[in-house]
Amino acid sequence: MGRHLFIPPTATPQTVTASAVVFDLFGTLVTVDDTPEPAAAIADELAARGVALPGDWAAAYTEPHIDAQAGAEVPLPDHVAAALASRGIDVTDATARRAVVDAFEPTIETATAAGEAVAAAREGGPVGLLSNCAVPELVDRTLRRSTLDPASFDTIVASVDCGWRKPDPRAFEAIADRLGVEAADLIVVGDTPETDGGITDCGGEFVDIAETPLPELPARFGEEELCR
Hints:
Elements: E1 20-23, E2 30-33, H1 38-48, H2 57-62, H3 76-85, H4 93-103, E3 107-110, H5 114-122, E4 127-131, H6 138-145, E5 155-158, H7 159-162, H8 169-179, E6 186-190, E7 205-208, H9 217-223
Parallel strand pairs: 1-4, 1-6, 4-5, 6-7
Antiparallel strand pairs: 2-3
Helix pairs in contact: 1-4, 3-4, 5-9
């Protein structure tokens, strides 16, 4: 389950010092029809696996159960297992995981010019995808259901796998390490300044698609040389 750096069309292009481009996924490259009631959807999947749910499951689901440090991702299966445990119900890790994974089957729509934007970025250097998503496998399934080619990305990092959520610097450092660059060498393309824009605290750059839409990125990347 990624707006301050902006070059207006009439402005002189600003030199980009990034040596790798990182895209956000949800809200940037794709839009999704989210599961409207995740607690209910997960409850259905748990019940289908023979798990007896507490009468106040909805309340248990919304309560915090894991004391995670700031910036850390709490995998949703871990949260679900902890919520059940708080009501005296034990489930295996595998049961919690499969229930969560199967509860999220969103409808995917690829954003206009998403593929072209990724292809244009690849012409200048390595490209990655960094997504805040607490649901295992959802990023990969989303890409497969979109018109994007997962092979277009040199690396794909979800917060549920790396352990950190944007804007925590460790999330950006995780993907930068996989791309073979420093976090300060990243230019992050996204739709949320509160998360994707955190790259500026690492010394990198942020492009907000609300100000520089995806269809405009190929021209921008063509004007600005990305150092390999």
